Amino acid sequence: MERRTFLGLTAASAASAALPACRSAEPPGPPAAGGTFQQVGTLSQLAQSGDRLNTQVGTAPITLLKNPDSGDLMAVSRICPHAGCTVEWREQTVLFACPCHNSLFSPTGGVVQGPANRALATYPVKVEGETILVQG
Predict the structure, then answer these.
(1) What pLDDT sits at residue 68?
(2) pLDDT digits (tens, 9 = 90+) for 43-96
(3) Cα gap 16→119, rounded to integer Å
(4) Residue with the larger pLDDT of the pair 15 and 81
(5) What integer is the mean pLDDT of 35-47?
(6) What are the CA-CA distances from residue 50 to residues 8, 16, 81, 85 (Å)?
(7) Contact present, 88 and 77 (Cβ < 8 Å)
(8) How far, in Å, CA of 72 to CA of 65, rounded?
(9) DSSP letter at 136?
(10) Distance CA 97, CA 75 (A)
(11) Whole-number Å distance between alpha carbons of 47 and 3
């Protein structure tokens, strides 16, 4: 085998082996339907935190907030559907932002700017007395 052919095959082999490492893991999908409701906080905690509370349902990080259109309580996933990074709330723009690829999401989870092409997952919420419950 000629040296040029050998080097070309070696380089191609090394590049193809490295590709899986460059690809991000598949981010989690939306929450499964029919899960049980779990206590994630109280109305007092939500009010004390400025009507936005970072918590989790099971092991999934979520933000509880009031829907700016309806005033209803919402639970929005903080996991970007593009690459699985944890999004951050940006008070100055009133948007969720992904630190990995700069995707932006509305307070209700909708895509404002890609590369993400799916909305943040949302979870069913109910309130019993002072207790906030999220299905997950």
Answers:
(1) 76
(2) 888 888 888 888 888 888 999 988 877 888 999 999 888 888 899 988 888 899
(3) 31
(4) 81
(5) 87
(6) 59, 49, 26, 24
(7) no
(8) 8
(9) -
(10) 16
(11) 70
Top pLDDT among 111 and 27 is at 111
Average pLDDT, whole number, for the chain? 78
Cβ pair 76, 120 in contact under 8 A: yes
Please give the radius of gyration of the chain, using alpha carbons only, rounded to the nearest integer.
20
Residues 6+ apart with CB under 8 A from 83: 24, 27, 98, 100, 101
Q: Take residue 50 and report the two structure tokens written for it.
A: 């400025």
Residue with tokens 């951050």: 88
Give the separation between CA 46 and CA 39, rounded to whole angstroms: 13
Residue 82 CB partners (closer than 8 Å, separation 6+): 27, 98, 100, 101, 103, 114, 115, 116, 117, 118
Which structure tokens are listed for 117?
């092409």
List, in order of start, the domains of the chain with CATH numbers.
44-130 (2.102.10.10)
